[in-house]
Structure formats: C-alpha cells, structure tokens
Amino acid sequence: MKVNGVAYRPIWPEADGAGVGIIDQTKLPHRFETVRLTSLADAAHAIRAMLVRGAPLIGATAAYGMWLALRADASDAALAEAAETLVATRPTAVNLRWAVDDLRATVRPFPEGERAAAAFRRAGEICEADVATNAAIGRHGLEVFRRIHAEKRDGGPLRVLTHCNAGWLATVDWGTALAPVYMAHDAGIPVEVWVDETRPRNQGAALTAWELGQHGVPNRVVVDNAGGLLMAHGQVDVCITGTDRTAANGDVCNKIGTYLKALAARDNGVPFYVALPGPTIDWNLSDGGQIPIEERAAREVSHVQGMADDGTVAEVRVTPPDAEVANYGFDVTPARLVTGLITERGVCTASTAGLAGLYPDMAGGSAA
Ligand code: MRU
C-alpha cells in the first residue's frame, strides 16, 4: 500500500543485506519513521514494544528475527534460544509460534553454514505467502460486502465498523479485516468506515484512520463505546475485525472490546464478520476459553500519547497518580456471535465443522 504515494510494506529485507527495515508504528500517526533491525534482540524488542504489531506482522518479524539470530550464531543451541526469546515476546498471536516453529523446522536439516541463508529465504516466502493470503481474504470479503451493499434498501454507502487495526500495517500487505474494505473501495463500492479508537493504545485512532486516509477511504474515528449507539441507530451495515488466535470451534480472540461489539451487533441484527489467515487458527485449542490473555503495562491505561498543538508529541496521565489499573489486551468472542469467518480459502461459519470444511488438511492436528 502507499504512504504519500510511495509503495511501502511495514517490513522489508534491506537491499544491502544489512538487516530488516520496519515502519515504527509507535510513532504513527504523528511521524513516519523507519527502523533497521540487525539482531535477534532488535527483532524481539520491536515485537515486545509494539514497533510492529498485528498477528501476521508479528509472525513475519519473528521469521526475520530467526534469520538475524542465525546470522550471528547458527548452532542448535542458538536456534533454540532464538525461538524461546521470540515466542516469549507476545503471548496471544499464534502466528508468532507458527512462524518460529516453521523457521526451526526449515533450517534444522541444513549444516550450520547454510542455516542463515535458508532462514532468510523462508522468511521471505512467509512474507509473500501472507500478502497472497490477505489478497485472497480481500477477494472473498469483497463478495460479502458486495452482497450486503446490494441488499441495502436506501442505496447509500456501505458503513463498516472495525476495531483495532487489522489493516496493512498489521500484516505484510493488504491487511485482513481491511483487505475487503480496500478492495470494495477500489471496485467502486462506496464504503465508509467507523473506526473504533481502541484504547488503551489507540490502534484504531492512530493506525487504522491513518492507513485508510492514505488510501482515500472515507472514515470517522469514534470512541470505543459509540458502536452500540451507531448500531442501534442503523448506522452500521456490517462489522469486521481481525483476530490474533482462532480456536478450532471458531471462537475468536482479538483486541479487548471486540466481544462487546459482537454483542451489540447481535442485539441489533448487524452481521459480524472476522477475517483471518490460516496461521491464525490454533488447531490445538478446542475452544477460546483456553487462550492466554495478554496483560500489559499499567502505563498504557494510565497514560495516553498525543500531539500538542505546538507539534510536540508527549504522553500524559489520565488517571490519578495512585490509581490501580488493570490492562487486559484481548478478549474472546464466542463463535455463536460471529456471522462468518472470512479466510483465504473462502467464507465459513464460525464452527468446528465450518473450519474443518475449509481446512480438512489441518483440522484435528497441529498447524505447525
Ligand atoms: O495488540 P495488537 O496491536 O498487536 O493487536 C492487533 C489486533 O488485535 C488485530 O486485530 C489482530 O492482530 C489481527 S491483525 C491482522
């Protein structure tokens, strides 16, 4: 996708082989800055501190992180240590473990001298596969959006509500939940997006609004609690979100607040879709209740980052200094509240049978 007219991905191998470039997402939307990762520690920090975030991009960064680690030391011990370090960075996104396990299995048969090159090749393949996967999600989602728009009685624009950021910044390109939005917009379907701000880190206000704006998709940021009102007033035609981990029964774990949107959607008869690539499915989990929920730093709740009118970017406190804070990063939306799962292989019901029907080669075993 484009930034000020220039094609960008949120991660890329640098042409001189010196490292991996990323867009520093902690600086958006106020500043567009890129960072070079040259070591395992850099990659782990980028994931942990959320310079990169979003399940597929976390997986891609981990894959390149394995390359950076093996470049320094390709022994079996270093391979195991790199895998452990990367998997510990963020607990929720299953793509992270999937990518690390894939890289381990890919390089292990090679002699030490060839492992780094094999890792680099495989990381590149994982990135290209993610782009193709998201484009396929976009095409399947486009048909869903086309149908919903055609069925609208008022003939007005398709009004989509999304939570967090599941756009191109969260993947290697296109995004998952936003891929159908971009494709519908490009196909001439009038689309307008309600963007949940997504406290505590405001990925909606900072990232989704920014990337939709860069592509020219009309969007409006709303506070997280506005969705119920908008749906009750008939202002939302469809909700679509991403997911960090999907259980085999179709329960979806996503950014905190997703569950409340699904409840409001059900109460108001608004279709609620979740877009996901295959590596987001955790076939080892029979339901979402077993998904560990990431608890993050209190400072993300007690403070917000923003730009003052004089252009300075600062963090300011919004709670009393001694306020107790809890910061749960994700919640689980039960499959019964999900109208459909939009995957690279097509659209299915959020159910064991639905997922098994699309992924007969994966269901009943490990995805790794
Ligand atoms: O904490 P984040 O910013 O990594 O959370 C991201 C999300 O919740 C996304 O919706 C999810 O990873 C899907 S991204 C295609």
Topology:
Blueprint: E1 2-3, E2 6-7, E3 11-13, E4 20-23, E5 34-37, H1 40-48, H2 55-72, H3 76-87, H4 94-107, H5 112-151, E6 158-162, H6 179-186, E7 191-196, H7 203-215, E8 219-222, H8 227-232, E9 238-241, E10 245-247, E11 252-255, H9 258-267, E12 272-275, E13 281-282, H10 299-302, E14 303-307, E15 313-317, E16 330-333, E17 340-343, E18 346-348, H11 352-358
Parallel strand pairs: 6-7, 6-9, 7-8, 9-12, 10-13, 12-17
Antiparallel strand pairs: 1-2, 3-4, 4-5, 10-11, 11-16, 14-15, 17-18
Helix pairs in contact: 1-2, 2-3, 2-4, 2-5, 3-4, 4-5, 5-6
Description:
This protein is of the alpha/beta class and 368 residues long. It has helices at 40-48, 55-72, 76-87, 94-107, 112-151, 179-186, 203-215, 227-232, 258-267, 299-302, 352-358; strands at 2-3, 6-7, 11-13, 20-23, 34-37, 158-162, 191-196, 219-222, 238-241, 245-247, 252-255, 272-275, 281-282, 303-307, 313-317, 330-333, 340-343, 346-348. Helix 2 runs antiparallel to helix 3. Bound molecules: 5-S-methyl-1-O-phosphono-5-thio-D-ribulose (MRU). 5-S-methyl-1-O-phosphono-5-thio-D-ribulose (MRU) binds at residues 53-56, 93, 164, 166, 170-171, 175-176, 203, 241-244, 254-255, 329.
Concise synopsis of the structure shown:
The protein has 368 residues and is an alpha/beta fold.
Relevant terms:
368 residues; alpha/beta; seven-stranded mixed sheet; four-stranded mixed sheet; 38% helix
Bound molecules: 5-S-methyl-1-O-phosphono-5-thio-D-ribulose
Q: Report the structural category.
A: alpha/beta
Estimated radius of gyration: 20 Å
Order of helices and strands: EEEEEHHHHHEHEHEHEEEHEEHEEEEEH
The main sheet comes to:
7 strands, mixed
Inertia-based shape: globular
